Amino acid sequence: MPETRTALLSEASTALLDLAPTVPRLASCPLCHTTHPSLTATALEADGNWQCSRCGQRWNAIRVANHAAYAAWVVAHDASR
Fold first, then answer.
1. How many beta carbons lie within 10 A of that of residue 36, not counting itself?
2. Does 48 map to a domain?
3. In terms of residue numbers, what domain contains 51?
4. Cβ count within 10 A of residue 44
5. Is residue 39 part of a domain?
6. How much is the pLDDT for 50?
7. Is residue 29 classed exposed, middle or buried when 0-12, 13-18 and 19+ CB atoms within 10 A define those classes?
8. What is the 3-state secondary structure (H, E, C) of the chain?
9. Are 21 and 33 in contact (CB under 8 A)?
10. Of 13, 30, 15, nearest to 64 (Cα)?
11. What is the chain's pLDDT, residue by residue, as a tens digit (81 residues)?
């Protein structure tokens, strides 16, 4: 029995979702969300650092991780109220 067009499109969509993205994710400032034009998140994690062109904050992997941990704590703390 031949497959229907919907089934074929569903399989194609699933295959596309399984592909890993090939575009590197750029680092962005946790405060103002400005994206750095050339520093990838992978480079930042590998001990890179940069200064945000919009707000002037200096960031490295440790500061970004600390900011993310604090943001998660705030969400959990607010949810417990």
1. 19
2. yes
3. 29-81
4. 21
5. yes
6. 86
7. buried
8. CCCCHHHHHHHHHHHHHHCCCCCCCEEECCCCCCEEEEEEHHHHHCCCEEECCCCCCEEEHHHHHHHHHHHHHHHHHHHCC
9. no
10. 30
11. 455 656 655 665 555 556 555 667 888 899 999 988 888 888 877 878 889 999 999 998 889 889 999 999 999 999 988
Say which amino acid occupies 23: V
User: Which pLDDT belongs to residue 55?
Assistant: 94
Tally the domains of the chain: 1
CB hemisphere CA count around 46 (13 angstroms):
5
Task: Map tokens 């945000």 to a residue.
Answer: 52
Please enumerate in sequence order all residues whose Cβ is within 8 A of that of 52, keeping only pairs 6 or more positions apart, or say none. 29, 31, 32, 34, 36, 58, 59
Read off the tokens for 18. 């399984």
Is there a domain that residue 4 lies in?
no
- Is 2 inside any structural domain? no
